[in-house]
Known about the structure:
The chain has 186 residues and is an alpha+beta fold. It is built from 5 helices and 9 strands; from the N terminus they run E-E-H-H-E-E-E-H-E-H-E-E-E-H. The chain has one domain: Aminopeptidase.
Amino acid sequence: MPAIHELETKRLLLRQWSPSDHPAFAEMNACPEVMEYFPSTLTRSESDSLASRISKSIAERGWGLWALEEKQHGTFLGFTGLSQTPELLPFDSAIEVGWRLSKQSWGNGYATEAATRALEFAFDELGIAEVVSFTSTTNVRSQAVMLRIGMSDTCKNFGHPSVPVVSDLHQHVLYRVTKEQWRADA
Length: 186
């Protein structure tokens, strides 16, 4: 098993998941506003299963979609980190930076701060040449984070194969940043 990496920023800890995170994660995944750009909210069982899969992935790789904790109070905020894109997407397999935060934590810059640290880890520690991010065309808040962390819209929108064609969430934007682009903007 590889060593499990934990990352820090001034305000945040990106760490391996704990069973104590599951209740707050389930509450977050049941919130219609948090899940607005996903096909549906998650049940407690679905949320726990997702948290377990994410935790297992981190244990196997040493990195992944880390639990995000506000350091001063130890508050679980959601997750931020890196994952392998699913093969079913209409572009080459890539490493994605992603986030999902509780509604109470929105507007504090946490997604930008944590995603920036995840990109730094991807480029400096993992030696990844390029990182992507994608979301529904209607999710302007996440697209704003993508821009703040130095990503660019590829203008290669795609229909997400896991989202029904009739859904307003079917069309997705694809953002990218290379290590060189990210370093030039840093």
